[in-house]
Amino acid sequence: MTTIAQTALRAAPSIEFSHRFAAEVIAGLSAKPKQLPAKYFYDLAGSALFERITQLPEYYPTRCEVALLRDNAPAIASLFPANCALFEFGAGSSKKARILLGAAATIEAYVPVDISGDFLQQDASQLRRDFPHIAVHPVVADFTRPFAVPAPIAGLPRVGFFPGSTIGNFEHHEAVEFLRHAGGALGAGAVLVIGVDLIKDIAVMCPAYNDAEGVTAKFNLNLLARINRELGGNFDLAAFEHHACYNRARNRIEMHLASVKRQKVRVNGKTVNFRLGETIHTENSYKYTIESFQALAQGAGWSPLNVWSDGLFSVHAIRRTDNG
Ligand code: AVI
After folding, report:
1. CB-CB contact of 209 with 219 (8 Å)
2. Per the confidence metrics, is the pTM higher than 0.90?
3. How do residues 4-36 score in pLDDT, each as one tens digit?
4. Which residues, other chains included, contact 43 with Cβ-Cβ below 8 Å and sequence gap of 6+?
């Protein structure tokens, strides 16, 4: 996930991006019920807020995952083939990948794949200084779509890394699609290390998305602020409330923005009407059991190799089955 430092270096959005953003926002606000794509949370301000979320006392996933990776790095590294290339999907700051790069002597190359090119290049320079024996080949691309593999990596066996439970922000069919795509990019027999948040007591899950400091509320409301900034919207942020709750039937945290009054908002030249209490659904964060994630992965051509868990979060190692 993109962080503060990365986004500070990010170039202005392209015209193509702005058109897609406008079209998806208008489509989402015209839908019933209203919704907005969660991928638009991560502008400069949103990425900074997400970075703060990962440090909140209530937001356990980052802390748990880093501890699991640190405590089990040798066991995870033992699954990697000789002279392999580690591909990180949605690389962000490579903070977590560094744990694996430091533990696995068999990693010959690191290939972070991320849409944020400026930061990737800067982070690559630092990684080359810190791990001089590892070749770093950043790929600027949308990691959910096919991308060109750098030529020097072509012959190396590949290991995938997808931390953060970002898979939880995908609908189940999208998660299967991503795992199939990752399988295609990594090749037959490849190992994928993936972080997955677990279903647990609501008293632990809900505060992680309703923190006392209100950082998650600001993160959610920033989506409206971004629409104001980039699409000439006139959302009054004080007229919307952050709501986050666990949907037991669907095993997901849902985030919404609820209108505190009847109101009209202008976005990109269009008027959007809100009833009192009407919500915009902004994000799903699916939670899994160890077994339900393994079943999902199996359906996408991956078999379980090992899993490390502290009861709150899980780090899975899965292997692509030959026919995956
Ligand atoms: C990035 N993703 C895994 C986070 C999550 O927990 O679903 C995004 C987030 N939304 C609110 N807090 C954190």
Report:
1. no
2. yes
3. 334 434 556 678 888 999 999 999 999 999 999
4. 7, 222, 226, 230
